């Protein structure tokens, strides 16, 4: 199976770094990062990741607005998106599923479980 490519979009540098290290180390995936929704959209177009981890709470363009722009773009519409969010309740999960999100992962996340959570959300088999 070819190496999976993940795009992590989060305005917090620390979250970007932890997610990148975890996903590269635990799953062997290649990870690209972006610090804003706008940068994330540009990188998604050019990098064409296999999945996007997207923070909900970001300045300027939040995760939901970013997701809507990704969905409206033919180049990025088919890329699975998983939200990273500090606020997640059953009603939020239902709403995210209704608008086409693949899943949501609560922050703070367990670094050792992140790859498995991403794989489960997009239906990948995580075997090293």
Automatic annotation (TrEMBL):
User: PROSITE patterns given for it?
Assistant: RESPONSE_REGULATORY
Q: Where is the signal peptide?
A: none
* A Pfam family the protein falls into: Response_reg
Q: Which UniProt keywords apply?
A: Phosphoprotein
SUPFAM superfamilies xref list: CheY-like
Q: Which residues carry this modification: 4-aspartylphosphate?
A: 55
Q: Which domain of life is it from?
A: Bacteria
Question: Where is the Response regulatory domain positioned along the sequence?
Answer: 5-122
The yes or no answer to whether the keyword Zinc-finger is present is: no
The name on file for this protein is Response regulator
């Amino acid at each position: 199976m070819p190496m999976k490519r993940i795009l992590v979009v989060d305005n917090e540098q620390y979250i970007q770094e932890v997610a990148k290290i975890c996903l590269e180390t635990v799953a062997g995936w290649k990870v690209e990062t972006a610090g804003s929704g706008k940068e994330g959209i540009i990188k998604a177009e050019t990098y064409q990741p296999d999945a996007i981890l997207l923070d909900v709470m970001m300045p300027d363009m939040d995760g939901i607005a970013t997701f809507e722009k990704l969905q409206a773009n033919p180049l990025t519409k088919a890329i699975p998106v998983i939200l990273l969010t500090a606020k997640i309740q059953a009603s939020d999960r239902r709403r995210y599923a209704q608008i086409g999100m693949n899943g949501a992962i609560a922050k703070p996340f367990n670094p050792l479980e992140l790859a498995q959570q991403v794989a489960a959300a997009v239906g990948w088999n995580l075997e090293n």
